[in-house]
């Protein structure tokens, strides 16, 4: 492309400081360096983690200014030296979880937790300790090493999945975070079994994807739990057999679910990121074999667990990106969507231009999504 090797000037939704709305700014995106790829972002989702970092309390401190966004899809604009697996024009999904394919963790079937460039990407820079985005002469940090709220961005070649050329980018972008996380929490981490009972706490994108995963796994009873009853109809579309609003009951929700299921569910999936809800989810599972998977994200919260409830045979586990090996599994999830084995269109409630990003955040927080 004509921009290869040149600085690209484009628009980005920039967070100058915590707690303030994003500002649409002109930014400069440098060419990719060794083992890096510059991509044109075509579509990006708005994830609760983005909102939480800007306005919430559950995230570790990261430097500002930065460009948020980590759930996206785009097209390769140019590649840096020593990049062999990508070419200009490739359709891709950037990944906040890398997969180098060479480290001990990548070679193990037990985990997807590759740590290639991990420490740097967590604080918003790439392998050399710098960002590729700047504004008004100032370095702008890349949230989780991605920054998809920018029209162009640069990511490591180990944090990028090449996908089929006929995939609609405005749909498959959702596989960059929320849908993959919730779906994988059920089918990978939880390993939900046929004819089982499940409770999914939180019916946002992650929770709805967990519901879908439970249905695909063959669960007989799938109970959606949320304080917003407006989400119940959509939950049924993804496979929920019934839904419960904790506000409709005087008893704690874990006791309500235990009564509904003769002692508790086989599987509980927490998709909110609230430690109190994590505890409720864990306590809603049946003793002897109940399993709880934590998929909701918080970096600073502490969960309360009564040890006896573990001693009685329950298991508690966490999941990151749904347990998927990112580079190799995301293209397979795209194939599943294209082959109508996986829903994505049904997750989308609004389509907005970049300059309406603060409106999107408002819709996200209000639950109208």
Automatic annotation (TrEMBL):
GO terms for cellular component: cytosol. SUPFAM superfamilies: GroES-like (SSF50129), NAD(P)-binding Rossmann-fold domains (SSF51735). It holds the Pfam family ADH_N. Its cofactor is Zn(2+). GO terms for molecular function: alcohol dehydrogenase (NAD+) activity; S-(hydroxymethyl)glutathione dehydrogenase [NAD(P)+] activity; zinc ion binding. It comes from the Eukaryota. Residues 205-332 form the Alcohol dehydrogenase-like C-terminal domain. Keywords: Metal-binding, NAD, Oxidoreductase, Zinc. GO terms for biological process: formaldehyde catabolic process. InterPro entries: ADH-like_C, ADH-like_N, ADH_Zn_CS, GroES-like_sf, NAD(P)-bd_dom_sf. Residues 35-163 form the Alcohol dehydrogenase-like N-terminal domain. The keyword NAD applies. The keyword Iron-sulfur does not apply. Alcohol dehydrogenase. Catalyzes the NAD-dependent oxidation of primary alcohols to the corresponding aldehydes. Oxidizes secondary alcohols to the corresponding ketones. Belongs to the zinc-containing alcohol dehydrogenase family. Class-V subfamily. This is Alcohol dehydrogenase 6. It comes from Seriola lalandi dorsalis.
